[in-house]
TrEMBL record, chains A, B:
It comes from Microbispora cellulosiformans. The lineage of its organism: Bacteria, Bacillati, Actinomycetota, Actinomycetes, Streptosporangiales. It comes from the Bacteria. Keywords: DNA-binding, Transcription, Transcription regulation. The keyword tRNA processing does not apply. GO terms for biological process: negative regulation of DNA-templated transcription. Coiled coil: none annotated. InterPro entries: Bact_HTH_transcr_reg, Chorismate_lyase_/UTRA_dom_sf, Tscrpt_reg_HTH_GntR, UTRA, WH-like_DNA-bd_sf, WH_DNA-bd_sf. This is GntR family transcriptional regulator. SMART domains: HTH_GNTR, UTRA. Residues 14-82 form the HTH gntR-type domain.
DNA sequence: GGTGCCGACTTGTCATTACAGGCCTGTAGT
DNA sequence: ACTACAGGCCTGTAATGACAAGTCGGCACC
């Protein structure tokens, strides 16, 4: 038994593959198909929706990229089990709360908070035109008095008007984003590398310039794919380790 | 003036789009095309290499996904002004498959493979008594010939009898665990820090002892919470970055 | 009862064709 | 000098057809 699908809109407002992708995604996320259950074959989907296999494959490709399904040659396409998802504990979002819970004293000091124009890197990460207004935050987070994390954040000013004047001292940025601007982070990409700090960053973190640190670059977005935050952070990992849980 | 390209191999050993992708990537990474310089148009590439536009688009799609190029509708495809990055997907499965998928040549060399007694650290991570038999693997993974990852794995011998005699050369460890022992990873904890390598490890990874590396410690377990694997790994992140997707 | 092989079904790869729609430039008209 | 627009680029979308290659069940054979 399969569902009846609403017909796809052929007015060209949106590509057929995108509409099909959304229809399949809705079905998967609603839980109607359990993990590792097969999707209809490409030929079947092609018939069901009245589109070519090209469109079906384009839609499935997108779902594979989003890790909602996986494909096995010769067998079919299957719903990806949610357990392969990954959660970052110990990121800027929520890390303060986690640490506080474990009885540590977390303080966050705002070093700089300005309005400016997006440079090339920021524009690319946030997917906005170079020169568009962004709010920049430079903050130092301490755990039990020890410098732990130095983070520079850029947010499109359009999404967070007036943020450059909000007093964040010891407040969670994500709390502010949520309460003041209704921003709900949906997902993020992060890149991690081991780096040496600049002289200035080393001083703030109270380490020497030859101490290896974790450098983290990140871009986060909303449900509708709008990029709302780009940051790069330096992490002292000599006393506190960076934890990743995979479930 | 364009280069002359070696003809693509049509023996079906490798898909045409992958060969083309590699050829273009080599050109980009060698720096012959500067950032934001255009690639030949799809039609031109199609002629140059004697393949259909389908193949060209497949190759370009992969390069876009690897963030080596970006495309602008109506204009063309351009070299992305970024450093190369390797995708590490934070799933319980190994990274080798993901890398292979993106057309990198992944080779894994087993340096040591022995049966021994669990030391204190291993016993704690695996939750077994100290002194219980464990199989230890020390492996060096290369990506496109470059040393990339040095990993030391310990598994309780009870769960993987005879593993110390299985030839793993270029085989995925997780594949072997699955097929030979029916081991299905359910979840894992990982800790990441920035560290310097020992003299021996530095030599294997072909870096100096003052190169900061990513150190990763991990323990993985089955659905029933049995710990089956503990490892610690050293990652070169100077040329390639460590990627984590959060969904 | 086991084994091997065939055929049906699946996804992967590739070619070809067509048109829509964005980008840019040259040119004709003002 | 300026504008409007046509036409030639480009990528995006879509249909269709073909074959390769992996999976799996069933059937015939031993």
């Amino acid at each position: 038994m399969t569902l009846t699908y609403p017909p796809l809109d052929r007015d060209g407002a949106e590509p057929l593959w995108m509409q099909l992708m959304r229809a399949l995604r809705a079905e998967i996320e609603s839980g109607e198909r359990g993990p590792d259950r097969p999707l209809p074959s490409e030929a079947e989907l092609s018939d069901l929706f009245g589109v070519s296999r090209t469109v079906v494959r384009e839609a499935l490709r997108e779902l594979v990229q989003q890790r909602l399904i996986y494909k096995v040659k010769g067998k079919g396409a299957f719903v990806a089990p949610r357990k392969t998802e990954l959660r970052f504990v110990g990121s800027t979002s929520g890390s303060a709360d986690d640490l506080r819970e474990s009885g540590r004293r977390v303080t966050t000091q705002t070093i700089r908070q300005t309005l400016g124009e997006a440079d090339e890197r920021e524009a690319a990460l946030l997917r906005i035109p170079q020169g568009e207004q962004v709010v920049r935050l430079r903050r130092l987070r301490r755990v039990d008095g020890q410098p732990w994390l130095l983070v520079e954040t850029a947010l499109p000013a359009r999404l967070v008007p007036g943020l450059e004047r909000v007093v964040l001292e010891n407040q969670s940025l994500y709390d502010t984003l949520r309460r003041r601007y209704g921003i709900e982070p949906a997902a993020a990409d992060r890149w991690i590398e081991a780096v040496f700090p600049s002289r200035e960053d080393a001083a703030l973190l109270e380490v020497s310039t030859s101490t290896p640190l974790l450098g983290i670059e990140s871009v986060a977005w909303l449900e509708d794919n709008t990029r709302f935050e780009a940051y790069h952070a330096l992490h002292r990992s000599d006393q506190t380790r960076f934890y990743v849980g995979i479930r």
